[in-house]
């Protein structure tokens, strides 16, 4: 799933862009170090492990000796990433030779984690206080329901039966990226909002978390604190209850939003209240490394462009409605067809054919998922063709030249543009030519030099 | 188009099956104490599990009379215990290890007291391969398996056939066997095992820094091995053991039908029953 990787990578970029001081503070926490370590490329992980007990500086040269010639590019990517995240600290000596050392804070936290083991800031509550904890299945169902209700609200705000009390801070996050509300009109999804709906759950979650963080930054909340809390949360044990009183005021505010999303379930006892992390929360750090738990698919696409979706979820119906025309709905089955019109609707909303195809493939019903390809080829090809129908005209910004003083000057200019691979059109009789905008300065310089 | 589910496991997710040498005859005479050895090894296990949430470690204890699974990081019993955190995970392992050593000793008493100095390497390799086969058959998605032998005691020539069979089946299922040999002389079995299966054979020159060697060399996942400079085998001892007296030999007689090896001339092959002609030297007499 490239999507998760891209989004999660963006998330790590966000971590990387934090000021050094804050980053070092984050690395005080062993769990954050662990999450960061797991998000690194394989080679970088290996380097961290190798450097873990080396206190001296290691020169870039000796690092390079670890790799075979084949791996040089991967080596460079790994080192860059490590330096970016301040896991490796780079020093340049007088002879301008680089050497690296593990960030001492990071090193200490990781060593502790390795030898002593990590302890969460809070212990699970004993079971005699928390009387009835939900089973793991209940908890998973709860998380999914919560997440689906939240998405449904996004896609069709008037369809939600129970008035969900999603807090204003969460709604703001939508409005920022996924929805636009013109005056007096119902809020509408933006292009990225539609694309968001077709991502798989983990990608959605990361996308949302990223928006949430940058949104809270604008509100003056410390992003570092938020990130550290989220990563820490992902190491809690699913289904165990943790006392809310162990949280700081800041974290208590966030946990309400997270409960709305289904990351945690809040429960109220007689005296105390507690939160129970769900699978969504613990998956956070797993999906950072681009591997996620897949849920069972439900869609069957036939070669006659008909779509059968075995689902009771309203959300699925709404998502299918984005790119197909739903014909009828039975209690456990949604039947629709992919038509040119329904697809054009989707394209207008900014959804691409590739996204629809990957959605259909990722959610293929187990019966068809075994088949290769899981979505019939004639359907996918037709979808791509319809999409390319819309893109017959390609726009390129360009410059038009005419009134050349001589044929030589014209041909020279043509050659010059050709050399830069920027000649779009020429008419040698009338001595006109069109060049790409990027190439214009070179051609102009060339013509000036000719004068 | 890449099929989506193939990305479920990242390239570097590994399943590490470790064969741990617990041979008391070896450890009682060895200069490096077992407790220190195990603390290095546990830190190494920790670091493997640290690298990815999906990494898995299975530990098989190799005694002189028996082998046993003593730890599996994927089994749920580790999580259900009241203590959370990694050291607690290993209290489980250490407890199982003690039980195993006690049981292994019991088994040894029942047998004749002939001093068997070698560990049951063939047994633990077979168990490791069985485990890996089960993972292979569990579905199309599985972590990349490899076997690591942490061995100290010398080879038992009587296990030659069994070990070679295990090596060839590992080669067939493309499972590399890494070997970290801590004893004083090189192990011919493990050298051949790593050579044939494309694993790494390494004998750490200094055991005080065992963790560093382990993390430098043996923590490398199969995906990264293509890019890293890892220790190469200097020379491999290809000597075989004869089938009749289980002795390691340089030169011997080979059955032309089934390729069994013998240290002296026989009338009939003991494996396949082919009748041999007289050897040249015997005919001249």
From TrEMBL, chain A:
* Alphabetical UniProt keywords: DNA damage, DNA repair, Nucleus, Transcription, Transcription regulation
Cell compartment(s), UniProt: Nucleus
Q: Does the keyword Nucleus apply?
A: yes
Q: Provide the primary localization.
A: nucleus
The entry lists its GO molecular-function terms as: ATPase activator activity; double-stranded DNA binding
Q: Which Pfam families match?
A: Tfb2, Tfb2_C
Q: Which InterPro entries match?
A: Tfb2_C (IPR040662), TFIIH_p52/Tfb2 (IPR004598)
> Transcription factor Tfb2 C-terminal domain spans which residues?
381-448
Query: Cellular component terms, GO, for this chain's entry?
Result: transcription factor TFIIH core complex; transcription factor TFIIH holo complex
GO biological process entries: nucleotide-excision repair
| Family, per entry | Belongs to the TFB2 family.
Job description of the protein = Component of the general transcription and DNA repair factor IIH (TFIIH) core complex which is involved in general and transcription-coupled nucleotide excision repair (NER) of damaged DNA.
This chain's protein is named: RNA polymerase II transcription factor B subunit 2
Species this chain originates from: Acacia crassicarpa
UniProtKB/TrEMBL annotation, chain B:
A Pfam family for this UniProt protein? Tfb4
Q: Which GO terms describe its molecular function?
A: zinc ion binding
Record keyword Cell membrane present: no
Q: What is its main location?
A: nucleus
Q: Where in the cell is it found?
A: Nucleus
Gene Ontology process terms (BP)? nucleotide-excision repair; regulation of DNA-templated transcription
- Keywords in alphabetical order: DNA damage, DNA repair, Metal-binding, Nucleus, Transcription, Transcription regulation, Zinc, Zinc-finger
Q: Which InterPro entries does the record associate with it? A: TFIIH_Tfb4/GTF2H3 (IPR004600), vWFA_dom_sf (IPR036465)
GO CC terms, sorted: transcription factor TFIIH core complex; transcription factor TFIIH holo complex
What function does this protein fulfil? Component of the general transcription and DNA repair factor IIH (TFIIH) core complex, which is involved in general and transcription-coupled nucleotide excision repair (NER) of damaged DNA and, when complexed to CAK, in RNA transcription by RNA polymerase II. In NER, TFIIH acts by opening DNA around the lesion to allow the excision of the damaged oligonucleotide and its replacement by a new DNA fragment. In transcription, TFIIH has an essential role in transcription initiation.
Subunit annotation: Component of the 7-subunit TFIIH core complex composed of XPB, XPD, TFB1/GTF2H1, GTF2H2/P44, TFB4/GTF2H3, TFB2/GTF2H4 and TFB5/GTF2H5, which is active in NER. The core complex associates with the 3-subunit CDK-activating kinase (CAK) module composed of CYCH1/cyclin H1, CDKD and MAT1/At4g30820 to form the 10-subunit holoenzyme (holo-TFIIH) active in transcription.
The record's comment on protein family reads: Belongs to the TFB4 family.
Name the UniProt record assigns to this protein: General transcription and DNA repair factor IIH subunit TFB4
What organism does the record attribute this protein to?
Acacia crassicarpa
């Amino acid at each position: 799933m490239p999507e998760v990787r891209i989004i999660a990578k963006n998330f790590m970029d966000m971590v990387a862009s934090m000021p050094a001081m804050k980053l070092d503070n984050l690395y005080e926490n062993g769990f954050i170090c662990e999450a960061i370590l797991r998000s690194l490329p394989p080679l970088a992980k290996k380097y961290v492990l190798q450097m873990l007990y080396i206190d001296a500086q290691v020169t870039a040269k000796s690092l390079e000796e670890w790799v075979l010639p084949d791996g040089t590019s991967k080596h460079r990517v790994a080192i860059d990433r490590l330096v970016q995240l301040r896991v490796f600290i780079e020093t340049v000596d007088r002879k301008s030779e680089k050497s690296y050392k593990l960030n001492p804070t990071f090193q200490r936290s990781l060593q502790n984690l390795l030898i002593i083991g990590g302890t969460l800031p809070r212990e699970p509550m004993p079971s005699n206080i928390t009387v009835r904890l939900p089973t793991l299945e209940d908890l998973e169902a709860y998380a999914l329901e919560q997440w689906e209700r939240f998405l449904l609200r996004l896609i069709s705000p008037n369809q939600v039966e129970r008035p969900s009390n999603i807090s204003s801070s969460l709604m703001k996050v939508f409005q920022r990226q996924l929805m636009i509300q013109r005056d007096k009109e119902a809020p509408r999804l933006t292009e990225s909002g539609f694309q968001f709906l077709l991502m798989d759950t983990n990608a959605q979650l990361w996308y949302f978390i990223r928006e949430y963080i940058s949104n809270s930054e604008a509100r003056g909340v410390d992003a570092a604190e938020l990130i550290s809390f989220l990563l820490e949360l992902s190491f809690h044990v699913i289904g165990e209850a943790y006392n809310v009183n162990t949280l700081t005021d800041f974290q208590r505010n966030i946990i309400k939003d997270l409960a709305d999303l289904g990351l945690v379930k809040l429960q109220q006892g007689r005296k105390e209240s507690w939160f129970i992390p769900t699978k969504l929360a613990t998956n956070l750090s797993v999906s950072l490394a681009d591997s996620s738990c897949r849920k069972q698919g439900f869609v069957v696409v036939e070669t006659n462009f008909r779509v059968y979706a075995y689902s009771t979820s309203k959300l699925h119906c709404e998502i299918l409605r984005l790119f197909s025309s739903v014909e009828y709905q039975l209690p456990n089955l949604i039947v629709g067809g992919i038509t040119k019109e329904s697809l054009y609707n989707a394209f207008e909303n900014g959804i691409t054919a590739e996204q629809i195809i990957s959605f259909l493939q990722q959610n293929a019903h187990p019966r068809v998922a075994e088949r290769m390809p899981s979505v019939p080829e004639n359907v996918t090809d037709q979808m791509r063709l319809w999409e390319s129908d819309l893109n017959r005209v390609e726009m390129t910004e360009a410059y038009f030249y005419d009134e050349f003083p001589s044929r030589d000057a014209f041909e020279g200019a043509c050659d010059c543009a050709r050399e830069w691979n920027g000649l779009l059109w020429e008419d040698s009789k009338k001595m006109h030519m069109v060049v790409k905008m990027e190439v214009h300065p070179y051609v102009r310089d060339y013509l000036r030099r000719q004068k | 188009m890449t099929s989506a589910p193939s990305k479920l496991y990242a390239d570097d997710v590994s399943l590490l099956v470790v064969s741990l040498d617990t041979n008391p005859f070896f450890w009682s005479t060895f200069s490096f104490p077992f407790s220190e050895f195990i603390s290095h090894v546990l830190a190494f296990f920790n670091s493997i599990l640290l690298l990815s949430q999906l990494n898995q470690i299975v530990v098989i204890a190799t005694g002189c009379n028996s082998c046993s699974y003593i730890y599996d990081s994927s089994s749920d019993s580790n999580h259900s215990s009241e203590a959370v955190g990694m050291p607690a995970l290993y209290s489980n392992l250490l407890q199982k290890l003690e039980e195993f050593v006690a049981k292994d000793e019991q088994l040894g008493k029942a047998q004749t007291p002939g001093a068997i100095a070698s560990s049951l390497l063939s047994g633990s390799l077979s168990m490791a391969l069985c485990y890996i086969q089960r993972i292979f058959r569990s579905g199309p998605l599985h972590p990349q398996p490899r076997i690591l032998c942490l061995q100290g005691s010398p080879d038992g020539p009587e296990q030659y056939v069994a070990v070679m069979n295990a090596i060839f089946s590992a080669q067939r299922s493309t499972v590399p066997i890494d070997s970290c040999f801590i004893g004083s002389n090189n192990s011919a079995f493990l050298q051949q095992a790593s050579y044939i299966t494309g694993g790494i054979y390494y004998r750490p020159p200094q055991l005080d820094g065992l963790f560093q060697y382990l993390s430098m060399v043996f923590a490398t996942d199969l995906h990264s091995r293509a890019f890293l400079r890892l220790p190469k085998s200097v020379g491999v001892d290809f000597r075989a053991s004869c089938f009749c007296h289980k002795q390691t030999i340089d030169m011997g007689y080979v059955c032309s039908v089934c390729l069994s090896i013998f240290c002296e001339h026989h009338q009939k092959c003991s494996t396949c029953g082919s009748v041999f002609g007289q050897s040249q030297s015997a005919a001249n007499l």
